[in-house]
Structure formats: structure tokens, C-alpha cells
Amino acid sequence: MIAVEHLRKEFSYYKKATGIKGSLQNVFHRETLTKEAVRDISFSVEKGEMIGFLGPNGAGKTTTLKMLSGILYPTGGKVEIDGFIPWERKNEFKRRISIVMGQKNQLWWDLPASDSFYLNKCIFGVDDGTYRDVVTELAELLDVRELLNVQVRRLSLGERMKMELLAALIHQPDILFLDEPTIGLDILSQKKIREFLRIYNQQRKTTVIITSHYMADIEALCRRAVIINQGQLVYDGQLGDINRVLGERKLLSVKTSGEVNEKQWENFGRVREISAAGAVLEVPQEKVKAVLGAILSGLPVEDFTVTEIPIEESIARFYQKEVATI
Amino acid sequence: MSSYRCVFLMGVEQALEYRVSFFLSMLSAVFPIIIQTAMWNYLYAHSDAAGVFGYEQGQILLYTLLATIVSQLVGAGFEGEMNRDVKMGGLNKYLIRPVDYKWYQFFRFLGQKIPRLMVAVPVMAVIVGVAFWQGLPLSAGRVLGFLGSLILGMALNFSIFYCLGLLGFWLTDADKLFGTVGIVLMVASGGVFPLDIFGGLVETVVNILPFGYTTQFPVNIINGRFGWERIGMGFGFQLGWILVFACLGRHMWRQGIKRYAAVGG
């Protein structure tokens, strides 16, 4: 169980004007500025839940994960994870969590991943039998059995990421923080890691908080999303409810046999795309039926489909601050 | 404890992983030895060097050979990585695991030294053997004293460079500093030539400063230059300085990690 209350984090930094002059000025006087990376975030995560933690670059996702894993001290607010305060960094707490950062590595570069696994086994005091079982099972699931004894530096990015995941799970943590685990990976590797995480979460009931810029990751894995922007919480709820919160709208794609001009289309709804062969309209949910009837009777329609607005697009609207904070 | 044993063994493995680089680094010790031998030979042939320096030609050659090897053995080399850990966030992986960063680095440092020791110890045995055959007074006590002081010298040099590495918390680009400091400390430790050739004040200062206790001190035990009383004192200084740098390192770590974790914003 993770409880985050009014979490805040400020960083101080200083500015430097371009060029030598700015550098010299900085030698004598530095103007210290404060950046609020995280402002007043509250949410909670139940045991076994897998949530998507979303936000644009610089929104404060990584900073929040660092506070949750105890790497950073917060400026204010509270976090409690299974009764522990992360930044006290108690060993008992460290045994319960694990964090994988897509852009950082913990494996020893010059040695095979299996050596790093063994090191983690020793560090976390995992017994021999459990260690063997865990490595065998996870290596099988991740499809890396043949690669366990290959030096890490000889592995591809995707293979390395799988090994990073495996290394992070040697001590069977209750809580797993994943910071962009699929960044830079090809589609197949992304899919494999996604599948792995889904199965792992189902089998072990591990609580997972995952950040990713690939919506496919989030849609495949999480039912719930927490979205932050500019350090503030802008959405916390079911992934499927995002569209409803934003005012339920549907996309109406219509194919016509002859050209229809833009003016005509605009009578039916907001025109998102238009071509000689048809158009895509954005229509409020409750008007779909009426609009469709009017189009069918008034225009030379060949075919039509009604779809949801892609979730990626809705989330982008949160990112652009088009929607008020909830 | 078992986790540090594991780190130690991985350090050994890591050092063995790059065979070419390993032999090249061993070989790199040969060149300074050749240059210095030539230099000393020239000096002794053309001046009253023995009178000026207080070392016979054979003694100075023995010193140079042993000091170069000892200097390689106690040499650090992890400070750059520490600096990167601090700057690039590599430290995170230690903070989230139940390990102590200092001991982790220490045991890896020791592990990485093992292959080097396995080559260096026989080479030193041959050098000392030849010197013994030439009339160097040698005893089991001196050999043991040398080995003991070598281990303490490694611990001391580790403590010094660990503190240096921790400077990364405060200096954005400490990397450049390491090159300069490395060379200065190499000379200050007596790794290039014996510092007691200067006599007087310099010798006193060297005897008080910690650096000589990483290299010059062990060599002066095995080459018979130090009497038992000075050896005893030397061990006292070694242990004392290790303690001082251990405390300094501890303090720097505490302050540094607060900065790193941005305590209080």
C-alpha cells in the first residue's frame, strides 16, 4: 500500500547568460532560482495494483518516483509505503522495493548479467534455491536463457533492458517502480517486456508504478492512470474514463461517393480531417445518432464508422493544459 | 559480509576480463623503470650522486624498481567512476539496495588488485632475491612487515582517493582535478624517487604527510633503510592516517549525500 500526501519537491538552480560574459558574472554572483518540480501531489496505490504514471517531459514523474524509492528527500508532504518512510532508507524497506530506470543501468558492464544477478542475490540475502528458481523462471519468461552468460556490453539494448528487469526482481520485491522501461526499444522487445510485466503482476501481485511515453505500454498494462503536468496532478482515475471526463465525444468517419465541401461538413460537427472521398468529424456522444441520420439522408454516403477518440490524444490534451486540473 | 565477498570476486573477474589492457598496464610500469634506471645510471656515473643523495647506486635502483611496482599496486583509479556516479545518478543503484557504497567500492578495488598482485609479488620476490644475493640484509620480519605495510598502504590510498572521489558532490567537473592530483600524489608518495634524498625539512614533512605511507614506507621496510623503531612509528602513522581519512570520508559522504538527495530543497 502506497500513500502519497501533498508531496512537494523544489530544486534550486542558477541561471547563466550565454557566453563568457555570463560565465564571468556567475563567478562573482549567482542568482539562485527555485523550481517546483512537484507541487502538492496526492494519490494512493493499493497492493497488487498496476498504475500508469503519465505526464509530459519535465512534469515531475521521475522526481516523484525518486522520492517514492527513497533516493530523494521531499521538500514537503508525506509518503508511506507499507509503513515505511522511503527516504529513511531502512534496509527492510529496500528489500521490499525495486526500481528500474530505462536510461540507467545497474548491471556490471564488463561481466555477464548472471554475475550481477548473483551479486544482488548476495546483497539481498536470497537463498540459493529461491535464487535458482527465480532466475530460471524469469529468464524463461523474458526469453533470455541463452544470454545469461554473455557480457552485458555485448547485449542489444532490448536484451539489456530485460536483464535489468531480471536483476531488479531477484529479491522478489513487493513494489516495483518502472521509469520508462521500454524507452528506445523496438516494437518486439517492447511487446515482450509488456507481456512479461503483465504476467508477473498477475502471478506475484506485485504493486507496479510505471511511467512511459508509449501509450501502448500503459493501455496494455494499466487500468488506472495518474497524470501529472507541471508538477501537479491533473487526472487520477480509470484509463477508460479519461474520454468521459473530457466530455464524451466520438469520431465519425464518413466515406462519400462524391466530393462534399467543407461548409457542408461543418453543419454536422467539428471537422478534423477532410478529403475528396470523405471526412472525419468530432461529434458529442449524445448527438451521434441525430448527426448520423442527417448525414445519411443528406449526403452521398458510401460507408461510415463511429470510434472513440484515441486515448493518446485525450492524454495529450491534459499535457497541453487544455483541461482544468481536477 | 557475503555481499562484499561477492563484490570482491567480481572485481577479480572484472580485472581479468580485459587481458590485453591488463598486460599493457603491467607493461606500462616497465617504461618508467627503464627511463629512471638510465637517468640514475647517468647521474651516478657523472657526479657524486651517492654522496649527495645518501643512496648507493644499487640502493637507488632497488628503490626505483620496488616503488614503481608498489605504486601500481596501491594505485586507485575508481575516483573517476565515483565522480560519474554522483553526477550522472549512478549512485541511485547503491542507495536503493542494502549496501554501503564505501565498502562496495573498497572490496571491488581490492578484488581488482588481485590479478596484479599475482604478477607483482613474484616479480618483487625476484628483485628482492637478486638484491639479497648482492648483499641486502633481509629477514622474515622485514618481508612480513613489507606485506603488512603494503596492505595498509592500499587501504590508506583507497581512503585518500575515496575522499577525492567524493569531491564530485561539490565540484561539477572533478574529473580534471584527478589527473593533476594523481601526478602530484604519485611524486609525494615517493613513487617516482625516494623523497628522503632532499633531507632536512622536506624529509620531515614527508614523514608527517600521509602520502609517503602508501608507497615509500613499504619500500623502505623491504630495502632495509628503516630500522625497527621507524617501522613501528610508520605503522602508527599509516593506521592514524587511515583513521583520519576514514572519518573525513564518512563526514564528506554524509554531507554529500544530503546534497545529492537534496535535503531541504
Report the CATH topology name of the domain at 247-310 in chain A.
Answer: Alpha-Beta Plaits
CATH architecture of the domain at 247-310 in chain A: 2-Layer Sandwich
Form type of chain A: globular
Could you tell me the number of beta strands of chain A?
13
User: What is the average of the pLDDT values of chain B?
Assistant: 89
What portion of residues of chain B is helical?
over 70%
Give unreliable regions of chain B as ranges. Answer: none
Tell me the total number of β-strands of chain B.
0
Largest sheet entry of chain B? none
Q: How far apart are the termini of chain B?
A: 35 Å
Q: Class of the domain at 247-310 in chain A, according to the CATH hierarchy?
A: Alpha Beta
Query: Main sheet of chain A: which strands, in order across?
Result: 5-6-7-3-8-9
Mean pLDDT, all residues of chain A: 90
What order do the helices and strands of chain A follow? EHEEHEHEHHHEHEHEEHEHEEHEH
Q: Most extensive interface, residues per chain?
A: A-B, 35 and 24 residues
Global Rg of chain B: 20 Å
The 3D shape of chain B can be described as globular
Write down the oligomeric state.
Answer: heterodimer
| Helix content, binned percent of chain A | 25-40%
What count of helical segments of chain A does DSSP give? 12
Write the layout of secondary structure elements.
The complex is a heterodimer of chains A (326) and B (265).
Chain A: E1 2-14, H1 19-28, E2 32-45, E3 50-54, H2 61-68, E4 76-81, H3 91-94, E5 97-101, H4 113-124, H5 128-142, H6 157-169, E6 175-179, H7 187-204, E7 207-211, H8 215-221, E8 224-229, E9 232-238, H9 242-245, E10 249-256, H10 262-266, E11 270-275, E12 278-284, H11 288-298, E13 301-308, H12 311-319
Parallel strand pairs in A: 3-7, 3-8, 5-6, 6-7
Antiparallel strand pairs in A: 1-2, 1-4, 8-9, 10-12, 10-13, 11-12
Helix pairs in contact in A: 4-6, 5-6
Chain B: H1 2-17, H2 19-27, H3 30-46, H4 49-53, H5 57-74, H6 79-88, H7 92-95, H8 101-133, H9 140-166, H10 175-188, H11 200-208, H12 216-222, H13 228-260
